[in-house]
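Quick one: examine the sequence and fold tokens given here and explain what the tokens say about the fold. Here goes:
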Amino acid sequence: MSKANKIIKFGEDVDGYNIPVLNEREVRAAAGLLFLLMFISILIVIMKGDFLMLKYAIVIFLTDFLIRVFINPRYAPTLILGRMIVYNQTPEYVGAQQKKFAWGIGLGLGVIMLVLQIIVNSFSPITGLICLICLIFLFFESAFGICLGCKFYSWFYKEKAQYCPGEVCDVKSRQPIQKTSITQLMIVLGFIAWIVVVVFLFNQPFSEKPYDLFGIESSSHAE
């Protein structure tokens, strides 16, 4: 294999796997980093109406995904950081092909955001919806290990995805520890009802601004 082929490659060759794979643990860590960046950027837009950090976040997001898809995931900055974060954890290998498809979706969304948000310098329900979709995709990947983009892979390709996170590609019966009982479902419903009751009963007192317990703010103003 030539040096160029070693650099431009999607996925790693690991003994025991007949297709290129990726380490799901570092993918999830990278998704968590991007989620944090995008969430803070969008929060600043909502709270202050300042789009500066979001524009930088879009450039970072798009650059990272361009490297992932067109060069090699091992050279993507967030995946390198993810590898450093989870270096002490046992790798969980997943098929690279469905990840490439999912990241292609992310790349497309990033290009649209680049055009609308940065080049045209506009905002609209379209950019808001794309930001929401990206947050949902990144959150599900980082928090639950669920690659939503990978779910669409089977819609476009006839071959079955291999080595999915948590072996979700394989049809199998759930183990007892995975099953949810009626009692557990009732607890969740009861918890939701409890939250609704708390909001109804305490919305007014919770809305009151807390006072400065030690008078630090007032003393600083006096100076």
